[in-house]
Amino acid sequence: MKVFVKEFTVSTRNREDIVNITRQVEDIVRESGIKNGIVLVYVPHATALLIVDEDEPGLRRDYITKLLQLFPREGDYLHNRIDDNANAHLASAFVGSSRVFPLVNGRIIRGTWQEILLVDMDGPRTRRVVVEVLGE
To answer: How far apart are CA 127 and CA 56, in angstroms?
Structure first.
């Protein structure tokens, strides 16, 4: 089995922001030369998360709205005593900071409208994305 690992960075512009990283991930998969296996996409940050869904402006706003409803900035969080971003930690922990995709014939298998979206809940920042391709 072959393993190929590569990282890239993404800069966000707002406290809550969504960036489509599908193209960068697919470029790394092509560069790996691996045709069949799995692709792990991981964001090594405690206040960012990954979702897989349609990249449509209204839906982007809906995601941010829902995340802030579930995890409001002003919540009575103990963590906010030392850092004012507890809601971002909770959102990341509940949604998740990684996704795994099947890789078949050199292509990530995803639905017609599914894109890989990095959600930053504590920006603006520069975020690392790690992509690991495993297979043959």
So the answer is: 22
Phi/psi at 14 (nearest 5 deg)? Answer: -130, 170
Per the document, the length of the chain is 136
CATH code for the structural domain at 2-135? 2.60.120.460
Residue 63: partners with Cβ closer than 8 Å, 6 or more residues away: 18, 51, 53, 119
Which residues touch 43 (CB under 8 Å, ≥6 apart)?
Answer: 49, 50, 97, 98, 118, 127, 128, 129, 130
Q: How does pLDDT run across 85-115, given as a tens digit for each residue?
A: 999 999 999 999 999 999 999 999 999 999 9
**First CA to last CA across the chain, in angstroms?**
6
Tokens of 68: 């802030």
